[in-house]
């Protein structure tokens, strides 16, 4: 299975990753390697807990930055 991971940096410098197609699937890490290892674990846990109902069929279209 393949999932899109959205990655942001918080005010403390941590990388925060979330998987929009899996409800509640997010984690953080100090480095990209640590984040990807942890997000893989989070995905597997979400799939285990939520079962067949875990995944929504969302397709990433793009990301835009809006300045207000």
Task: Give me a quick take on this structure.
The chain is an alpha+beta fold. It has one helix at residues 32-50, and strands at residues 6-9, 15-18, 26-29.
Layout of helices and strands:
Layout: E1 6-9, E2 15-18, E3 26-29, H1 32-50
Antiparallel strand pairs: 1-2, 2-3
Quaternary organisation: single chain
Let me know the largest β-sheet: 3 strands, antiparallel
Q: Within the largest sheet, what's the order of strands? A: 1-2-3
Radius of gyration: 13 Å
Question: Mean pLDDT across all residues, rounded?
Answer: 91
Structural class: alpha+beta
Quote the distance from N terminus to C terminus: 37 Å
- The topology string of helices and strands comes to EEEH
Low-pLDDT regions = none
What's the β-strand tally? 3
Helical proportion, percent range:
25-40%
What does this structure look like?
This protein starts with 5 loop residues before the first strand and ends in an 18-residue tail after the last helix. The longest helix is centred in the middle third of the chain and has 19 residues, at 32-50. The chain has 68 residues and is of the alpha+beta class. It is built from one helix and three strands, in the order βββα. The chain has one helix spanning 32-50; strands at residues 6-9, 15-18, 26-29. It is 28% helix and 18% strand. Strands 1-2-3 form a three-stranded antiparallel beta sheet, with helices on one face.
């Amino acid at each position: 299975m393949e999932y899109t991971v959205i990655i942001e940096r918080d005010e403390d410098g941590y990388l925060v990753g979330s998987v929009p197609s899996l409800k509640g699937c997010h984690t953080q890490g100090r480095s990209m390697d640590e984040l990807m290892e942890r997000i893989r674990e989070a995905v597997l846990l979400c799939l285990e807990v939520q079962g067949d109902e875990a995944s929504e069929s969302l397709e990433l279209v793009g990301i835009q930055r809006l300045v207000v």
